[in-house]
Amino acid sequence: MVTNNVRFGNVYETLGKDWFVAVIDRFYDKVETDDLLRRLYPQDLTESRDHMVKFLIQFWGGPTTYSDERGHPRLRMRHMPFEIGQAERDAWMKHMREAVQEGNLQAELEQQMLDYFERAATHTINTAS
Ligand code: HEM
Fold first, then answer.
1. What domains are defined for the chain?
2. Of 17, 53, 68, 73, which is the most buried if we count CB atoms within 10 A?
3. Ligand 1 atom closest to Cα of residue 41
């Protein structure tokens, strides 16, 4: 995990809370219009947005509010209730890639973040589709 490195320092401190709130807003706006993904998520996405923002802030070096409220992330386990195959993973990643790219990051930091999401998204696959 690279939340602190020589090139970017603490990513959360560099970008600030608002950047994470905005990227997740854009991401879930895209999920809302995606039939393949929308059926996996709850009707009301308010909590989904909130959990995701807190998780990412924690992951990228910010306050640990996510784990204080929800415990250890255990992302693979938390995704077990949802059938995630390659198609779902790829649809999810497409929206996240666009949401990140719309966030105007410095190129290397953008690549670092996309690499993380690519790996983590593959890790949530739990069914052969
Ligand atoms: C980089 C990859 C991913 C990360 C970091 C991530 C992160 C998260 C987090 C933090 C939560 C909330 C867990 C909680 O309740 O505390 C969540 C929930 C969820 N994720 Fe993911 N996820 C990833 C990939 C995926 C993929 C590929 C799918 C399926 C297409 C998916 C579908 C869902 C669904 C359906 C929920 C439950 C709805 C909700 O409570 O938000 N996730 N994810």
1. 12-123 (1.10.490.10)
2. 53
3. 35
